[in-house]
Predict the 3D structure of the following.
Amino acid sequence: MVFIRAVGEMYIEITGLMATFWACNTAIKYLYQQYTNHSFFSDFVAVILCYIIIPIITLINIVNPKFAKIWRKFQILQNTKILLFTIIEGSLSGYILSDREYYQTAPISWFVPLGIAFATYTKYFNIGACPEKVLFVSVGLSTINQLVFGLIIGITFSYFCISAIYVAIGFFAVRFYMQKYREEKKLHELYQMSYIIANVYAELFINYLFAHSIQNFSPLK
């Protein structure tokens, strides 16, 4: 039960991080499209920062013990570096993809960790300590979350495909966490960072498959 609760606590934190990522991403897209429509710096620089440089810098800060000593001097930053990473990544990816828009409303990415957190942290499902049951119930509830939201806004083929990608990330993430679980802060941060990065790259992939450029799009009448 301690292990299951640890999974639940981890995914409560990840839900908060992913909701923050989604909020920053959505806000930057909206502000850019409605009020700015002006590039602050080149798209190439933004892409390199978002998808390569900032993840590498954050990874080094987590893994390298020399940086860990520096972070200890700034206690507030030490406890919030993953949150800062999430805010920066959400804002940058929102800026990069601000000229693209989905044809229909897309599923919400943080509904997946929310379902996993609810299934593992609460006592409603009586999961026990069976890894297969944990995986089935948590990912199953995440899928139900996306389907219910889809029924409200209207399920389309693109919605189904995007939901499947987010649920797949959740499935492999939970499976990996159960296999590698250890109570160690560094691994805790690495896991959170990995989950966010997986969703950052997934969003890029999804946008170029299921979204259109605002500038070149002419809706059919």
In short: Confidence is low (pLDDT under 50) at residues 217-221. DSSP finds eight helices and two strands in the chain.
